[in-house]
Structures are given as C-alpha cells and as structure tokens.
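Possible race condition, two jobs.
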Amino acid sequence: MRLTTREIAFALLCLGLVACPEEKSEPDAGEPPSVADTCDSAEAAAAGEACRLALGEERQGHISPLSDVDWYAIDVPEPLPARALLTVTAQYRVPATPVTLVVNLLRADGVSSLGLATDPRPRGAPGPAQVVARLQPPLGPGAGRYFVVVSHDTGADDPAADRKNPYFLTASLTSDPDVNEPNDQTPSTIALGACGTATAQGALSTAGDVDLFSFELQPCQGRTILQLSLTAPASSAGIRASYALEGPDGPVAMDNATNPFTAQKLLTARLVPAGSYTLRVQGYKAPTETRDPPGDPSFIYDLSLALFPDADANEGASGNDSLTNATDAGLSLGGVARTFTGRLSYVGDQDLFEIANPGSRARLHYRLRYSGAPGRFESVPTLQPRDLEVFTATATANDCRANCPNGNGETSGWCARSQCLWQRRVEEATVDFGNFEGQVQLPASGPLYLKVGYQGSEGADDQEYTLVLSLNPDTADEASGPHDRDNAIVVNLPNDGTTTLGHGRGARSPNLAPNELEAIARGPSDYDAVDDTDFFEMRFQPLRPPPPPDGGMPEDAGVLDHTLTLAWLIPPAQGQRTGERSHDLGMRLHFCEDPACERVITTRGFLGYKAGTAQVWYHQANLGIDGGIAPQEAYELDQNAGSFGMREVMCTCIDAKYAAAGKFWVELQAHNRASYDDAQVKLSMSVGPYPPTVTDDEGNTFQCPMPCQWVEKSK
C-alpha cells in the first residue's frame, strides 16, 4: 500500500509522541464519543439536535472508522442579510493528519450541491476546507434547511481515518463584502477619466466567482500607456488571483498569481488605443483542473488603473519597435556623438535604432546608462533581463548562415529571422549596466541595427536611459581590410610592428593580470561575434652553422636554435594620463613545422604580462642547480610608459625545427580592456644565436639549456 506524504508525516508524529493504537470502530474507554459517529445520513442529521450545526457554533467530529461520512443539518432563518453568504469551514488543528477533509454543502433535498471544497494543502499542514454559497435570491435558494457532509477525500491515494484528532466545524451567515455583486455576467462600470486614474475593489467570495468590470478609455495626448495593478492577500483557501483584459481590438493582457499562500500582486503596462474595455477577475483554474477555484469572503482584492502618455520621444507617432520604423540615428562618420533618451514603458516595448552605412570602413561605438530615477509607475516584474543587441538584417536565413560570423552567434533563432547577431550586452546585477558599452565594425554594406529591450519582451519599467552613439573611422592599419593570417602585417625583424586593436571587447583571461587597470565591466552572457585580432608575419634569415676554416661544408648544415626576444609597448590613448592605457595585450605564436610551411602549429593559450613568478619551460633541466630551477619573475613592466618585456631568464627561443621556414606569425588581441579608446600597439621582437647566458632571480648565472624546446613545450 502506498502512503501519502500526509500519512507518512502523521505516522512519524505518532512515533515521536505516543503509541498509535490500531484503528477501531469505537473510541477507547475514557474518550468522549464523537457526535458525528451517529450522524451518518441525511435522515440522522434531520432527526434531532444531536446532528444540528447552529450558525455561529463550533462543533467537533472525527473521521473514523475508514470511509466515515458525517452529516449535519443547518437551518438558515429569515430575513437574510444583503448579499447573503453561507460559509461552512472544517479544519484540523494539528500539525499532521492522514485525513484530507472534504466539505459538501447540499440543499434540503440532500442531493443537490451548492458547493464542495477540499483542504487545499493535502501535502502539508492541514488547511481549511471551506464552502461559501450565495443564498440571496435570485442567485441563491434563500433561507431554509441545508445539509453539510464532511468526509475524507475519496480522490486521495488511500482511505484514511483519524480517531485521535477531531476536526472543527463552523457555519456563519454574512453579507458578501463585494458591493459590486452580482457582476458575474453584467460588468460593473469603472469611471476612468481622460488620461486619468481609477480604483475598484472586489472579493472572490464563492467557488468559481467571476467579477466583470468595464471602462471607457479616453487616451492621453499622443500614444497612451495603461498601467493595471491587482493586489490580493494570501489565501488559506488556496485562491490564486487572475485577470484577463480585453479591448476594442481583442485580448490585451492576462496573468495569474503563482503562490496563493503569500500576498499576491499582478502588474502590467500596455500600449492601448481608445475604446471600450472589459476586465475579468477570478480565481485561477489550471487547464487540467476539474473543480472550480474556491471562494473566500476575506479574499478582497484591489484594482488600480492609470493612464500615462508615452514619454519616449524616439517613439514618434508610430513607435520604433521594429525594423520598419526604427529610429534613424543620424550619425556622420567622424562627427560628434549623438545622445538619445528612451524608456521601456510597456510590455513589448523595444527601441530600435538604425545606423546607416557611410560607404567606407567604420566602427559604431555605443554606451547605455540608466539615470537611476524611478519610473512613473511600478516596474512590471519579469525574470528576463534587459539587453542591448547589435545586428544586421540579411536577405534570407541561408544568407545569414553563410555570412554571419560564428554562424548565428550564440542565440538560436537569429538566422531563422534573417538577422545576424554581432554584439549583445545582458543586464547583470553586479555591474549595474556598466557592461552596456561596445564598439563594433560596420558590415561592408547595408545598415546596422541596435535594439534596447527586455529579453522575451516581457518586462517594462518606464525608467529613463541614455544611449550615446558615435560613428568612428576604422583604424588606419585596417583600411585595406582585417589583418587575418592571410593578410598579415609583414615585419622584417628586428624592425618593430605597429597596429591598433579598435573593436570588440577583447578577452579577459584569468592568466592575465589587470595591471592596475579598471577593466570594463562585462556580464557572463555578453557576446561579441568578432574581436579585432591582428596578425603579424615576422620574417628573418634563419641562422646556420658557420662554414669550417677550410671552406668546406659544416658537418651539420641544418638550421640552428634561435633566441627570441619579446617586448611590446601600449602607450596612453588620447585623453589618458601617464600610466593609463586602453587595454593589455594577449598574443599567440604560430610556427611552421616544415620549411615549406605546409603545417602550422599554435602555442596554447595567450602570452601576456602576468605579475609574479612563472615556471620556466626548462625547470627540470640539469643546470647544476639542485632540483632544477625555481619559478622566476617572467616579465618586466614599466607601468608609466606601458612597456612590457619577457625576461631573458625565461630562455624564450625557437626550436631549430620551427625556425627553418624563416617566418612565424604573432596573433594579437586586446585583453582586459579598460576603454574603447584607440591606442597604437608597438611590438618589438628579434631573433639571435642560442643559447644566451642568463641570470636567475637568485643571482645564479648560467647558459640556457640545449637544445631549445620552448615551442615544442608550448604548442
């Protein structure tokens, strides 16, 4: 036999407190007999006072033995109060019981039901099983005799009884606190003035109670937003408030509370036209539920309606919620930045801006911040965050899949809408919109779109935000296109290479220290399809053994190992002070595995400045030092100048195998970006004979180990 959660809890309670005797049809000696034991039918309840439940009286009964059913008679006298309600409540007052109470209120015929209620907490502490019936004619049957039937829920997993604990039963006759009744079919009118506010109150007093309201909406000047609020108390009867709003064009909004046992509040804000509206308020009934939601005269709710003009100047008469009516950003290449002030004031509100292509390579810089001032009305709650998305529209979904960087980005469904996601910033509580900034390269043709809104278009807050947009020329080094490996910047060593990493947020690697920079905030769901990544092709003449004195060929005519020195400079960008810079640098090196460079390997991870010590690649080599060599300070840094260099003690070198091609590539990417200001990066590298003589942090002098295996151990 399966036990319900309540039966298990009851059994454990018995074990912890007293021994639970076996079920009997009669009470133990010394226990008062249950009145309900003799009230087992309508005839018994009508026969005399023993089974009579007087109004205002509290009675006790037991559900025992199994399948016990208790009957009571109630006599309701004339005259009835206005909007008369008969309320019958049965409840256990113990922490646990195996019984799930059911109360059925019947007419005088003992058959026709006026309402049936079940304990709303069958898996927790016992709650009230409460029936509320409307008696006032013509909606109700009026004064007279009624029967109450109390039993265990036959829909539960197993029969149950509780001989030890009584249930408590009461009946009362009161007036419905909802003065709008009856309004189940004919709506009560709410007087809502032009661009004004209004309130109303009601109660869901009976099972399946429906309250209808109607109002005429007279709009504000321009576009009009309706804010609707419904608040209700926690419901021990398990009532979950719900509403449905319909307007002249059909359904407008609907919602329901999720937890009946806490205070309930439903909010929405909608863009609405003028016209006639109907609002339906009732207890929520799940699609799979067969019983009507319960009623409770104490479940009194408050309605609030308020009209507001749309205060977002970018919306215009037709809004800017779609590509067809997006706000023209009006940017000029290299011109002054433009500032837009907007709000997300209604559910479904999203602000789209169109950035026209200037016909030459350009970058869009954007920055969004909220003012911090509250909106004109309370925010519509949602679990979805606000976000900012930058995207392009494509001719077809297949065109998107073929040409959009990284396919359709990390968000499914973009290419299905023929849209390509380039950048996204997602609200993150810990950074307070500090991550809503970026710089993105415009496509070769066609406009770029920027959207501000809620994911899923569910929320609204009416809080003012400021969006600053500017259109900047592309960096000079990329006038002919991006510098990927096939279009790398060629440098003949030991000359320096220079570039500017001008778009994308770059990387933030835990292996790279922030170097006293205040890095740009970012959220875990932020996304950049493309980061500005530049390749240098470093060319050099491979070193070979010198010829012997007799002029013949050396015994080993192959290429030698090469020392590799590595340094770089990131000076302050325009407007930055000494010691500041736009970003740090991360780099990966790509080497040829054969002289023809048909196979290329890449060092793992990114090289870059890291404070503190690092393990050298040769730490287990036999250098005459016990246990090899300890971790060393790997880099030198001049914070004021922004110069970095890898120390000689690291013995950075190019294995002979990888030097034979006479070239390698350096891949550069911005790391720990502190701003999107342009800064020209200078990369200084050289190659030379290997091994050099170096000095470690303890002052020991030695030659780097032979042969060089730095590339081999780094790939």
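Job #2 (started ~2 s after job #1):
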Amino acid sequence: MQKRKKGRCITILFLIFTERKHMSSRLILLLVIILHFEFLVAQVNYPGRPIGRDHNLPVSFVKIERSQSEPASNESSDKYKTYRFAEVVRVDISPEKDGSWHQISSSLRVWILGICSPGCSSIGLTFSHYRLMPGVKVFVYPYHSSNYLGAFTFRNNGRYGILPVSPLPDDSIIIEMQVPSYAEIYGNLRLGMVGLGYPISRRYQYPTGDSTLSADCNVDVTCYLNRELQTQKHAVCKIIYENSGLCTGTLVNNTAWNGRPLILTSAHCIKNESAAQSAIFYFDYEREMCDGKIKPLKSVAGSHLLARNEEYDFALVEVQQKIPLDYNPVYAGWNVTGQPFAQSFTIHHPMGDVKKIAINEDPVMNGRIFNVPNDNYWVVPNYETGTTQAGSSGSSLFDSAFYIRGILSYGGESCKPFIYDYYIRLDQAWETSPDSTLQLACWLDPINRKNKVLSFYQPPNTYLPFAIPISHVDSVDILKNTGIAGGYIAGTNPYGIKALAEHFRINGSRYIYAVKIHVHRLYATSARSMLTLKIWSGRNQPDKLLYQQAILLFELAPEEYNLIRLDSMKLVNESFFVGFEFNTQVDDTFSMYFAERPSLKENTAWARYDNGWYPLFSGTDYLYAALDMEVLGFNYYFNHKNRPGEFPFEDRVSVYPNPAQDQIQILFSATPTQPVTCRIYDLQGRLCATVNRKNSPQNFAVETSSLRQGIYILSVQCEWGVFNFRIMVNR
C-alpha cells in the first residue's frame, strides 16, 4: 500500500544538454514525457480555465511513494514492442476526505488538491469514479507550469464512469473542481489510479523543442510524398494505457459505414477491460510538414474492450465517444482474403514519438510461432525505409492498396539489417472462434455482408482548417462591449432583448459547418440557462428559420472566441442571418463584442425585441455595427474520396442534391468567367424554369419549390459547354 503524507513537495530541476549518442535510457524516457506535453493542447474538453492560481488558493498535497525499481530496458525478452514509461499506483482519493474547499463567491466554490511524488518524471491520473453534474468543471495542471487540462464536465461522463487524464511532465500536479451555486451536489469524483513516470536524477530538456525520441533510422510519415498515404495516416493513433504503457493503434471501418470508433491494436497492449477503460488515444500527432513543427496532440479518453485473443494477439476496443471531426479521423479499410502481397508499410509511434513510417519493398512472407499449426503471421524481414521499435506494437501492416493486412506483434532490434517483424494475419484472426469476444468478424462486419475487402471511410465534415471564414469584423476594427443600464448593448439588457443576429451576404451558396463567437460577459444562474443558435434566411431581416441548436450557457467561456460546431452542415444562399435566441433565466448574463462603424453607414447587427428586429440600441440611438462573429463554411459538400477544397465530381459541372426538395445546387470546378444559363424541362420537353447568372459564383442554388414532384431535365449552359442532368424533385 502506498504511503500518503500531507505537505508540500519540492523538486529541484537540473537542466543538462548532452549529445544523443550518450543519452541514457532514463533521459530518453523523460523526453517521451516532456515532448509529449510540450505540444499538448488537451484531450476532449470544454471551455473554462482554472482559478486556483489567480486566487492564490492554498493547496494541501498528497504524497505518493513509488518503488525504486524501473525497467532496465523496454526491449523485453519476448520481443513485444511495447514501451513502459511509468509505474502504476492504486489510490483512493476524493473531495469528501482529501484536499480543501474554498468559497470564492456567493455563486462559486472550489475544491483543490495536490498530488506529488518527488523525482518522478510525470504524473498521469485515472478517475475511477467520474460522474459530474451539469455546470461542474474539473481541471488538472502541473504545479510548475501554466498549462492545464480541462475543463472536464458532465460531457465527459462516460458509460463506465471512468476518466483517464493524460500524463503531465511534473512531479507535482493540482486537481481543481469548480462547483457553481446552482449545483446542489457536484456528483461523484474519486481518483483511483496514478501513473508515476520512472524517476530520474536529472531532467533533460531538448534545446530546440524538436523530437528525437525514436531511433535515427525512423522516417517521419510527413516526409513520404504519397497522397493516398497522407490520407490513411489519419487512421493511426498513439495509445497510452493505464498511464504507464505506450502502443500504437488503428481506427478501422466496418461494413455499416457508421463511423463507429473501433480501434485495433495488440492483445499484449490492452490486456483487460481495465486497460481499455483507462486508455487514452492520441490522433493527428505528427509534423505539420517534413522537418516542420509538431502538431498539438488531440486525444480522446476511455474505451470498452469488445474482443481480445491472446493466441492471435489482437485487441479491438470501442472508444466511449465519437472521434471529433477536428481530429481528421480516417477509418481504415481492411483485406481478409489471405492472398499474398508484395510491398507493405506500417505507420506507428515508436517510443511515443510523432508518426513514423516503415516501408517494405519486397513480398511479405508467411510465418508461424509457438507451434501454432497455421501460418498465422505475415513476416517482414527487413524495411528498406524506416524501422519499428518499442511503442510500435499494435500498428497495422498495410498493403500497397492501403488495406490493413496484419497487426504488429513482435520483432527484433531496431535499425538492424534484418529485424524480422511478425504481424498477426488479419484473415487468420477474422473468425477464430464462435465467441464474439475472440474474433473480429462480428464487429467489423456487423451486418453480415461477408465482405473480404472493405475500403476506408472518411467522415465528410473533418475539414475545419480548410473552411472558408465569413466575418464583418477585422483586425482594424475597435471591439466594444458597452454596457447600458444594468445590461449590455449586444447582450442581455433591461430593454427586453430576445435575440441577436448578424446579417451575411454571399455570392452563391455555402455549407455552414461552424460558428465562432467572441463572448464578452457570461454568467449562468442555472444548469438550464441556454441560448439557441439559429440560422435564418431573409433579405433585410431574419425571416424563415433554417436551423437551430441548443447551447448550454455555462459551456461557453467569457473573454474568448468560442467555436460552436453545427450538428449537421446547413446550406445557405445569398442572404442569411446567424445569431442567438436567449432562453436565459432572470439573473443570467450574456453579451458579445461588436464593432461600431458609423462612417460606413452600414449595419449588419440586429436585435429582436417584442415588436420586431432593430439595429443595436445604445439606450439613446440605433447603431451602425457588426457582431464579432465568424461563420465557417464550404463551397461543396465532401465525400471520402476527395481532399479538402477539391471539386467532388469528375466533370466540370455537377448538381447537388439529387433528388432535390426546395432547391438544387449548380456546382462548378472553377468560377465561371462568362454568363451561365440554367433551364429546367419536364419530360414532355416543356420549359418549366429559367435562371440567368451574369456574374456566376462557383456554386449557386436554383429554386425547385414551385415544381411538382417528379423527374425533370436540368440543362446548364456555360463557357465549358452544355451539361444536361436528369433530376428528381421530391416532397
């Protein structure tokens, strides 16, 4: 049993610089932790920030003793390529009996506690009981750094009531929980497991912030110029399990094509349900470009073990939440025909490093071990490019058509001429037993199509970095947050404001993916305090409601830009409005920043009162103003075969959607430079509608609401010729 002592833990940091060839395994181990966090943004979290430092709250520390032993090497005798970086200690820590409570104001109380283990290189946490009430927020942050993880909220409540938190590179960390006054109870929070990074007597800090964790013969995946491979790499993730071990996994597709978050790895990585529930999965951890900066880590936490087979060394887990679209997830395809193949590659995270690639140019061999009668392994004797090493276990072997064919089980030493890596064959592990927990087929072919080959799946809305922003506020505008008589011009005020809206005009059509708003003041008196994000059509003021989505007020953050993703992309045309309807309580506060522009005599910001829509009102005058709001959208919808921003059709002109209801889009691969004419005919050849565009955008909508349900011919005449489409109008 661990010893627990109250008191401050003090750690002296020794920074040394040394040549890599003289770096000890302990220093390399610390690099894993330091560089892992240096570029860390956070696992899935929600708006908010810790306030313990701001209020100088006193912190009582629980000291956790560690054993003095640590592995001499991560290259174990059985050749499994896992990487062990920390010691696991079981604890029982909760707000009921540990830490201290502080009343910050009449509306907020805070619980705070420190965890320390002098000399350890990192601390990772697993909350064995995690079930928060709405409005409650939890943060975890290192004592010696301004970084933090969180806010973790009720949105992080998982099916199994467990929340693992990424390791932080410090020997002292703080846990902070903020409880608003309207939350009568905070819920259930109990710390059950701590991962202590193996201790070292000195800390090593790489001077350039670069990544040199893995062997020199490894090759960054971003340096390999293959377009298809640069798509498939997004299926690969780094796995930390039980806050102590590192492996690699792959997000896999299934025959239902439903984006179910299934991750395939090795059985010797995820050994039981506890390891699955405590696992953290890191996506998109790679360089921005070859030899470029390292991207921030993006992670999701917690999973459920669906199937595991020790004989065939595979584990299949389901992450307890959908993979966020901003993580650029790709669900890899697979091939279980068992046919031989030449050329292969694996993408992996050796020693937890950024994604690397190992390429084999020769035919893959069959192999067997442990007296198993079948050739249940694909064997790669040597890689012409790159290698694998500790931390690569669980990575997938892809063939030249980018299908998963195997899972890395074990192999020889890195950077040697012949290392003989053994990958369990996916076809051999497919239906190993009628027991669903021992096979892959029932999970990857849930609708029993008997597919032997399945292509990859890429969700259509993963391209936030490529979205086209629309905003009326730029860097030269002076932002205002003017208050009036107990309220705000662009927010809740005593004049009875009901909603805010910003007017946008575009040439053509666009799919809205997300809205970014600059929040000024925010105060929620209840977990039921809400805003409703709305999109309206209209020429001079909001008219027809096109879309709405509820937003909990306490989940927004004041004095920050808040990104709100739409539940589904919404098509808008020419003139539209985006804003919020207030569903707030009497004492709630919400306001936005706005820019006043009297010299332009142009107003795009509107407020709704009981008797209609008006420009923002200062208390004495109506203003020419714009709300500090940005709409993010795309010219086209996406399919998984196209890269962001590419025209999603083979021909230069196309239409979407088909069948149509009230309108159909005309889509061009480039902006026309000459007039465009669209004509719609019925099947008897009668002209039903004509649309002429002298200055056509790259896409625009043609109204079909006046057409009866049926089949029509849509003819598009443009500079590239005449294109005819058979379309259907449904009601």
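The longest helix spans residues 25-38.
Logs attached separately.
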